[in-house]
Write a structure and sequence with these properties.
GO terms for molecular function: 3'-5' DNA helicase activity; ATP binding; DNA binding; four-way junction helicase activity; hydrolase activity; metal ion binding. With about 950 residues, this protein is an alpha/beta fold. Among the domains are: about 200 residues, P-loop containing nucleotide triphosphate hydrolases (Rossmann fold); about 230 residues, P-loop containing nucleotide triphosphate hydrolases (Rossmann fold); about 50 residues, no CATH class; about 80 residues, no CATH class. It contains 34 helices and 20 strands. The strands form 5 sheets. A 7-stranded parallel β-sheet has the order 3-4-2-5-6-1-7, with helices on both faces. β12, α13 and β13 form a beta-alpha-beta unit. The structure holds adenosine-5'-triphosphate. The site of adenosine-5'-triphosphate has 16 residues, from α3. Adenosine-5'-triphosphate binds next to α3.
Length: about 950
Amino acid sequence: MMTTTTTITQALKMHFGFDNFRSKIQEDVVKAVVKGDKDVFVCMPTGAGKSLCYQLPAVLAPGIALVISPLIALIQDQVDHLKSLNIPACSINSKLPAGERRLIFADLGSSSPKLKLLYITPEMVASPSFKPCLTDLCTRGLLSYLVVDEAHCVSQWGHDFRPDYLKLGKLRARMPGVPCLALTATAPKNVQEDIVLSLTLRTPLSFITPVFRSNLHYDVIFREMLPNPFVHLHAFIQQSLALDSGSKGQGCGIVYCRTRDSCESVAHQLTKLGVSAKPYHAGLKTGDRTESQNEWMQGKVLVIVATISFGMGVDKANVRFVAHWNLAKSLASYYQESGRAGRDGLPSSCRIYYSAKDKEQLNFLIRKEISRKQGKRGSLKETDKATITDFDAMVAYCVQEACRHTTISKFFGNKTPNCAGACDFCRNPKLVRAQLEKGSSLSTKTKAQSSQPSGPFGFLPGFYEGGKKGYGFERFDEGEEDAEGGEDDGSTRKKEFSNLYKKQMTMRKGMTVRREGFVPPDDDCQLRDASSQKIPRLTVKTRMHCLSLLKEALYGHQRADDTFNDTVSLAVNTELDLFEKSKSSNLYKAAILKKVSDIKKTGPGERGDDGKAGSSDSTEYSSSSSFTEKQQGFTSASEIHSMKRKRFGAGNILQYFAKKDTPEKSQQEEEVVPDNTSISPNTVEDDHELDRPLFIGDEMEISSGEERKEEVILISDNDEEETHPIDTLEVTWFQYIPAEDIATPAGQKETQEEDKPILIEEVTGEVTSQKAPSPPAKSCDPSERGRKETQEEEEPILIEEVTGEVTSQKASSPPAKSCDSSERGQKETQEEEEPALTEEHCGPSEKRVTFNPNVQERPLIPANVPVTLKEAADIVVRYLNPFYSKGKFATKELFKSFARFLSHLLTEGSSKGKDQVKAEAQTLIKKFFIKVQHCKSEADWTHLRKLHDGKRK
Ligand SMILES: Nc1ncnc2c1ncn2[C@@H]1O[C@H](COP(=O)(O)OP(=O)(O)OP(=O)(O)O)[C@@H](O)[C@H]1O
């Protein structure tokens, strides 16, 4: 590799378009790598131009440089950049289309491959598909370099440790003659040592430069002290972007948030304040995410509000600011993330919006995670301690009176840099001090209360109850197929956090637990009376969601003279009003939905005379809101049919409610039922959406009569998991269909069946003579059977269809079709699943059970409901619980039998006076379920059920 300086400089110009090296050290590294007689270790600041240090030598050397990089997105950016420079580079990864993969392998297998750089993730190194190729390249001596980018990932002391990086030592051993180059921006001394050891670098030439970047201005703002943090952030953005006025183009910036929700809300707030901002997080569809990134890269969007999964592969020169809305998990991470700013060397700002509450939460999550790891491995590790130390360093950076640059430099083992006013402390120490004093007076209480017994690192592992890993800092959370598997999804983490954080805080404060699982509101929570736990099981999150629904509805109806704040405060007040009036979570949610529906029915700009949200006229709703469902994480009804269904366990009784157009409607129903609507539930959408909390936007289609369709959102407290024990279900409604809607023409029905996604089955047919005019011949219809079969496979069964009769006279006319051979075929399928059912119902004098997913046409509960819908729901929840575990009923049959029983009671009672029936039904149900609760086995249950069936007949 004898290449002269002139050749190198010419190549720099020719291939990369640079006249000079960015720095002397960059030049030195390139020369050392080109020389190729030694391994090289490079630790240079973010944006220093490390990539060129291996890319240029790779272009000059014969053969292929194998580059290990942690993220497919990062790799993709590098490859795209190189390709744009006409440098043959590619990547092999799990996302590669088969055709491209073949071409690459063909080139690699040829006698003289054209490729100069081949990028792979550490996981790919060991993959069976790539291993033979790698061995072949090694054997034929075609590898020019082994490059390990982001080499700190190899170290357990590093802030982004990746276990698969440890495999690289072995890889290194397989190519002894190939020079190795390791690069990082964030390696304190211990990490540096780890890198050298793990990669078995042989007496490497080390190029280590201080982390100090004089063009970055660092400061910290205490978020809790701000009257309006968003306005403050907005001003910061304006100020930072103004820095760019003298340079070529308009700058841009990044706001990092820890959660997807905050990404959404910060982006929304900024947009409202007049800055073009877009969210970017793993909960978005790939297309939306790519669009956000592209628009930001092209300067169409000035601010990207992202989780930390954004940015690692992004090399944008004119990032004028990086704001952290939440703390980073360590000072090293913060340095790397904030280092996305000012890569063109021009002045840029890096700010943290520090919040003591945020700190507490992170502190808790980090320690919990460590506790979990300890529990798993049964021992303590020094690296556990380092995780805490690193986070403490992050906090210290925010809360100490010291130069920010100095704090960072010291953390990385560098000397004190010459800050020269490039941080808030060096610029105005008095201001920093004043902020700290005010901040500490705010948090004195918390500190005084936190004198707790401490474990090995100042905490007791038991205190945190173990739990699963992760606390919102997975850089590799974007469906990195090559990446380390087994990460929890966000919702699990959130759920754990909700419960454990609250418990932890309560323990610290020496309080008794007021409500299991109640997560206190964030500081910037817009709700009024947000900490109130007056409604059992209603979470702050659900209230926030409801508030957003109200806001969304109101934005579309803003009057010309309304300001944004008017609308927000109207939404806040309306929410509070409904919160105060509601006694249960269900009623609260229903009231919100009704209000939203009312608002939407009102024409834009109209709010009724009193200016209150939601006057109820019949003006057709038109969604003029700029804040669409999509932005909120919802999918429009029009997209529903293309969505993959989420499977609900039988216990997840999805709810329906509809207006009962009868004068005797109970007050409770009145409260919960939106006008003239019936709702069919829809299923939660595609897989990647499942990692968001379930409560966000489980969508339902509302239809009024046959024609009108709207979108509403089912609000559930199931915001943390996909299935719940039944007793945790809150929104539990049965569908109510007015009697007059029962007879629906068959053709119409079929269309509806095709159109409507169904989650529950129904109870059809009649239990009284008037109501059972004809057993449903349609279930003999082959097309219907086809539908049924499909649905039985796909659909969770929630409420069965009872076809036929339960009174003796009715039972005497058995549905002939049950003996039809095709029907038998259908039954055989059922029999496998439901032997008891078939046995019991196949005989001529028995009622026959089939499944019918068509919930729209026929009533679950006939016209006069003897118990309220809510009561019916409560009954299901309370009494079926003993037969419910791990998201499922013990058997489908159990559930069906119950449904049959319940519907019988309800239907039977429908001909009597309402109050009397209600009382009777309740007594019966109670009696029955007292017995049910004494059932110790399924046999007991079957016995009881038979007894009951006997009585009924
Ligand atoms: N010699 C050079 N002259 C001008 N610009 C350069 C030169 N070398 C690199 N750059 C530019 O500097 C920017 C930062 O380079 P690079 O992405 O390699 O940084 P890095 O050190 O890898 O940063 P990080 O650790 O944050 O990823 C890029 O836009 C790159 O094109």
